[in-house]
Amino acid sequence: MVRSTTQEAPARRRHEKYERLIAAAQARPRLAVAVAHPCDEASLGAALEAADLGLIEPILVGPRPRIAAAAGGRDLGALRIVEAAHSHDSAARAVALVNAGEAGALMKGSLHTDELMGAVVRREGGLRTARRLSHCFVMDVPGHDDPLIITDAAINIAPTLEEKRDIVQNAIDLAHSFGVEVVRVAIVSAMETVNPKVPSTVDAAALCKMADRGQITGAVLDGPLALDNAIDLGAAAIKKIRSAVAGRANVLVVPDLEAGNMLAKSLTFLADADAAGIVLGARVPIILTSRADARLTRLASCAVATLFASGRRAASPLPEV
């Protein structure tokens, strides 16, 4: 039966981009995901629902009694459970599954982010590569035609120019995994002109020149750009900015974690946007969701990881440290 209530139509429009990502991921092979310490209803439920939708093949890593309690009576007999003593042990064993080739991604359960990332960045037995780790929010913003990538808003606090190069490249690789044909990267600052008193504008100019010289590949870059003229054609026209990026950016690279975090949360709480989260730059994608995330956001994060891992299998792996 077709429903046409006025309440449901906006909901469909709001989540349309995430639904497209989930549908695209369902067409790919299931991704084996080591779920570290899924010992509460939210984290375990997200992994199980992603499995039901054909997005991932979860491997549950943690204390078996606590996982069973979080399942609330659901039969877990068909799923692989790797016993771990506690949250730190869960993180270490989840990383070990990746190193053994038994998992192609990590997913954060009910443990602190620092616990999981500590196991990832360990020099011995971790998942480090020559690429800097960075976080991408994949935003489904109502009224915006395509998913919007914001980086970095969760890992790198005050990145250097060299670190920003990796942050940009990680985001470009992610956008390509969605099938974005032309990746347009805006290096965002408070203004669209280079001002030596505002270091982020100088970094923006340097990053654009790095792209010109082939140090960053796979995208068109422009910056510095203020947020308005990065995403709004009218604002770019008023400022007489002519570029392939201004007004049409699908990747926003922010100056630092504070700016990125406030931008992403402003969109979430003031514009009803959804924010899926993924960490890139390790040997495998890391699904880094919050216990406060909505159901669809968690599923979209799994879809993003599946799409990225599928694209990465077709490309060259990142060089090891």
Automatic annotation (TrEMBL):
GO terms for molecular function: phosphate acetyltransferase activity. The keyword Repressor does not apply. Its EC number is 2.3.1.8. Pfam families: PTA_PTB (PF01515). It is an enzyme of class 2 (transferase). It comes from the Bacteria. Keywords: Acyltransferase, Transferase. Residues 88-296 form the Phosphate acetyl/butaryl transferase domain. SUPFAM superfamilies: Isocitrate/Isopropylmalate dehydrogenase-like (SSF53659). InterPro entries: P_Ac_Bu_trans (IPR012147), Phos_Acetyltrans/Butyryltrans (IPR050500), PTA_PTB (IPR002505). NCBIfam families: PRK08190.1, PRK11890.1. Belongs to the phosphate acetyltransferase and butyryltransferase family. This is Phosphate acetyltransferase. It comes from Methylobacterium nonmethylotrophicum.
